[in-house]
Amino acid sequence: METGWRTLSLAALAPIAWGSGYYVTETFLPPDRPLFGAMVRALPFGLLLLAFRPRLPHGIWWWRALVLGTLNIGAFFALIFVAAYRLPGGMAATLTATAPIMVMLIAWALVRERPQVASLAGAAVGAVGVALLVLRADFTVDPVGVAASFGAVAMSSLGFVLVKRWTPPVDLLTFTAWQLVAGGLVLLPIALIVEGAPPPLDVSAAGGFLYLGLAATILAYVVWFRGLRRLPAAAVSLVGLLNPVSGTIIGIALAGEAFGATQALGMLLVLGGIVAGQPAVISKLRRTPRASADRHPDLVGLESAVGVDDAEPVGSRLAGLHGDLERLAAHGAGRREVLP
Known about the structure:
- The protein contains 15 helices and no strands.
- By secondary structure, the chain is an all-alpha fold.
- The radius of gyration is 29 Å and the shape is globular.
């Protein structure tokens, strides 16, 4: 159990780091270049990681690495940035908060991890909490943005479950490097066609990309994939709801964003949904009353049937029964002595 919670805690670092990326992107990176920013987060740092783990895919892992890199990195980043441009940030975050439910359903279909009702309910409560946390009254609905949000959720959810299903022949760092390089190569031509040549970078932009690449990409995806490999999909996908919580806290602390009773309630719902939907918590709550009854099943009935006034008669009957058992044992011993 301790190992599982430790793995889950490490996996939670991923959405926390992703949530911090909103502030870093808005404050330090070149404006209006989201595809370029996504490509820089993936390709250079994937190549850097691959330099330390110099092993290329072989056999079926060429196309599997391309599929996973496209789903988890390339297509996901591209669609999520389309959603960010076409929708208010709060609405985009609310739609992507449906990802835990999508991950659980796909995991049920592909890896036979049947989601518990409490886990689905926790995910739903968490999504409502995200809406209260980040959604504002002046939002507008753009069909293209909504489609891009759900497309990003579907792509990444499928990719995350495939990480559980396909066991790579290499260590996790190399496995992550393959996906980052593949996803970055998918993004490179799209960024050049849509946004043109790369913009000039100053020191603050370079520092921002360095943080996003090392902390919010390499570290985040390594611990995230590690959690997906070792834990149920429901457990890991639920902690993904920490993404908007992290972004909100950093926005309040560093950007002076407003925070009121509605946001506080939303944060409580998100955290409550994450904890209440954890399979380990659900299992423990189900075992506790049963275990207390299993330890002394006869005492439970005895306590309800025997009162204080009945203690003396019951004790006398038990003493008489004990004497009868002793006489029966002596008689049996005598018989055993004459049997062949």
